[in-house]
């Protein structure tokens, strides 16, 4: 992926005010540079002066001149405060497992920068500038999946980032080149940080990883729900169902916003379909997976809207402990607990699994000659010799089964840690991690339904699909051929999933249903 330095289309300004989801996504994807305002620099410097006044005080202040977690009662002598910062990052950068995706780490870095810019963390402006330096140089610390319990902040993930700022750990450049942090910083013209009292804790005591995953997941799931309406419309059409059930007057009887929106999209996609026109009057009611698509897809959409509200409040929040208050006091608090994020991350995983489950049922119906309204078994060219899309459905079913397992909530699985000081944790990081995996799975499920429905529509010739679904089939056929003898299907599934991710298929549909003026 190109670097932010070469592809930047705009600059995201960090002032301490709430960031927008658009800001977070742009920086996460490497499509924007980051700049700290002069006002934020001044705010941070003023807050730091309050911290400096307390650093040599005999009064114990958590994280400033004490240990952390269960060691909070151990007061650290002034001559050991810098050593505390080094030890804190080294000990907390204890992650394990697969690497976290680049976009999540970049989002996490931006969100931590924004909290620091409010002054509540009480760090020097140089700390925020160091994070911005990494972002603008497109250097991403290696962060591993396991290590955050979603409470006291995303500790191990953020510690991996903070450690890289000091010249330890590993960094990955935009071209995928990995090197030790000290060398990468030097090549980018960046200086390693030497942390002062309290700054190590301030870099790791936030829910920024969970929030970054939520913002990215909301954007991805909203796009996938748009595709789910497209695949549902194509399946209804290919199965010669009815579009009458999607009428606005019927949806108004149950006034959920998401349901109405989904039904309106499906209706628009099926408008002027010769296949449906030829099939009118043949059946009384379609199966639930066809007839109730707006009710399920719409409920998922309403869940996304709820998640947007949570994300907006979190983007306006300042997560740090202790917090520097406007009058200069440092106060301990519990705002680092990730429950608000964990619950909604789990909720989105449930919605994703259920949408996938309905997609799989429509795919199965398209492949079963007993229920597909005259289509050949498994849509095979020469049934018996050819298996058609039989095993593509197996793949889809296996992914759906995985999504159902991923829908089990992480947020109810608290494990006490730190000698019972941290005796209830949110597991929000785990909820976010499994949600992103679930959205990858939903993409595959939708790709297989789309492949199946497109082949079924081709097999309805000489009857033609609607203008909108026909445009989707045409866009797909630029990359994946139509019906024919069996061929290697895995590359076709991957190609279709790519077209879903990059928005090409949605764009093809919307050029018909919502043409630009």
List the keywords.
mainly alpha; single chain; Fumarase C, Chain B, domain 1; 21 helices; elongated; 517 residues; 3-stranded antiparallel β-sheet; Fumarase C, Chain A, domain 2; disordered N terminus; two-stranded parallel sheet
Map the helices and strands.
Elements: H1 4-7, E1 10-14, H2 21-28, E2 32-36, H3 38-55, H4 81-92, E3 96-99, H5 102-117, H6 125-137, E4 140-141, E5 144-146, H7 155-165, E6 170-172, E7 178-180, H8 181-187, H9 199-204, H10 208-238, H11 248-251, H12 257-270, H13 274-279, H14 288-291, H15 293-315, E8 323-324, E9 330-331, H16 339-367, H17 390-406, H18 428-459, H19 467-477, H20 490-501, H21 504-513
Parallel strand pairs: 1-2
Antiparallel strand pairs: 3-5, 4-6, 6-7, 8-9
Helix pairs in contact: 2-5, 2-10, 4-7, 5-6, 5-10, 10-12, 10-15, 10-16, 10-18, 12-15, 15-16, 16-17, 16-18, 17-18, 18-20, 19-21
């Amino acid at each position: 992926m190109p670097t932010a330095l070469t592809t930047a289309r705009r600059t995201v300004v960090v002032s301490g005010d709430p960031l927008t989801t658009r800001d977070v996504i742009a920086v996460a994807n490497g499509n924007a540079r980051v700049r700290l305002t002069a006002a934020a620099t001044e705010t941070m410097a003023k807050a730091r002066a309050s911290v400096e006044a307390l650093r040599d005080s005999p009064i114990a202040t958590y994280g400033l001149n004490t240990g952390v977690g269960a060691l909070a009662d151990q007061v650290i002598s002034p001559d050991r405060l810098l050593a505390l910062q080094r030890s804190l990052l080294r000990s907390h950068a204890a992650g394990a497992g697969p690497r976290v995706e680049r976009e999540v780490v970049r989002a996490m870095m931006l969100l931590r920068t924004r909290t620091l810019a409010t002054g509540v963390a009480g760090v020097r402006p140089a700390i925020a500038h160091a994070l911005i330096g990494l972002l603008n140089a497109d250097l991403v610390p290696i962060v591993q999946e396991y290590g955050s319990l979603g409470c006291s902040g995303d500790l191990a993930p953020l510690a991996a980032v903070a450690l890289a700022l000091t010249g330890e750990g590993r960094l990955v450049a935009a071209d995928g080149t990995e090197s030790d942090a000290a060398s990468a910083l030097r090549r980018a013209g960046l200086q390693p940080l030497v942390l002062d009292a309290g700054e190590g804790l301030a870099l790791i005591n936030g829910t920024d990883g969970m929030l970054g995953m939520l913002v990215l997941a909301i954007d991805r799931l909203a796009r996938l729900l748009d595709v789910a309406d497209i695949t549902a419309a194509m399946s209804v059409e290919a199965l010669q169902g009815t579009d009458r059930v999607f009428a606005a007057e019927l949806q108004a009887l149950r006034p959920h916003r998401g349901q109405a929106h989904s039904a309106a999209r499906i209706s628009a996609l099926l408008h002027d379909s010769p296949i449906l026109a030829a099939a009118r009057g043949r059946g009384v009611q379609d199966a639930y997976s066809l007839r109730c698509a707006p009710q399920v897809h719409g409920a998922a959409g309403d869940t996304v809207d709820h998640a947007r509200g949570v994300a907006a409040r979190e983007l306006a929040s300042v997560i740090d402990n202790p917090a520097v208050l406007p009058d200069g006091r440092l106060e301990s608090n519990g705002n680092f607990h990730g429950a608000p994020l964990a619950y909604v991350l789990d909720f989105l995983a449930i919605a994703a699994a259920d949408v996938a489950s309905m997609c799989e049922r429509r795919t199965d119906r398209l492949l079963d000659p007993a229920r597909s309204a005259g289509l050949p078994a498994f849509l095979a060219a020469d049934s018996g010799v050819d298996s058609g899309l039989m095993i593509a459905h197996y793949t889809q079913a296996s992914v759906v089964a995985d999504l159902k397992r991923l829908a089990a909530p992480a947020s109810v699985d608290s494990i006490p840690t730190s000698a019972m000081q941290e005796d209830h944790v949110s597991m929000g990081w785990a909820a976010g991690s499994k949600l992103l995996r679930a959205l990858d799975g939903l993409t595959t499920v939708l790709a297989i339904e789309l492949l199946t429905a497109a082949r079924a529509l081709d097999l309805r010739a000489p009857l033609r699909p609607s203008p909108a679904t026909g445009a989707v089939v045409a866009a797909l056929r630029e990359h994946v051929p139509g019906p024919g003898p069996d061929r290697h299907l895995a590359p076709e599934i991957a190609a279709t999933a790519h077209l879903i991710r990059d928005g090409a298929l949605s764009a093809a549909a919307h050029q018909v249903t919502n043409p630009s003026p």
